[in-house]
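Hello support,

Our group uses your service weekly, and this is the first time we've seen a run hang past the timeout. The protein is Transporter substrate-binding domain-containing protein. I'm not sure whether the cause is the sequence or the server load. Input pasted verbatim:
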Amino acid sequence: MSDIEGGTLFIGITENPPWVIATAAGPKGVDIGLLSQFANSLDASIEWHWGSENELLKALNHHQLDIVAGGFTHNTRLTQLAATTRPYFTSHHVIGIAPHHPNAHAAGDAALEGQDIAVARLNSVTQSIRALGATPVITERVHDAPGWVAGPQWWLEAHGFRPTAHRLTSEHHVMALPKGENALMLALQRHLNDQSSLYEQLKRVEAAE
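Update from on-call engineer: The timeout came from a worker crash unrelated to the input. Re-ran successfully.
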């Protein structure tokens, strides 16, 4: 930590809106804001390094980076390759419905048996949807779907869908550090623990995309 305070944080990032967004003006997004605030608290500057998750985790393993971020979710593979923070946000995936759909007024109590549920091609909820007796339908523009949709609750609200009580799964978001960097881990975890408005930030950044 002593060489970082007043020095430079080398942070690896991979694009994953709204957590990390590549723009002509530099990286933006929820994780970028969190890490920029953290660096300011240490009077440190940041050197951002773009790459794929695999590339960044390899660099982290060789202590070439201090932190890697990109809206990562806690999983076994990640913990094998790096030390992870405790979850700083949990995304609850639920079923939502377009506000002008005929069933929107009673969506919370509606049975989903036989219903088509729009999902993104890359998703973690297919099995959970089938367990409800519904059919997941891969949709290229999920935010334009006219009926039932599955997604994180903050994402649904950002795109005008009405979340229902049909919960599918949850994902716990973490950041990755090299194993053994205990002082940096404690400082970052304290910073993440102090965050209280991430839900609204996620909605705002997603809605602006």
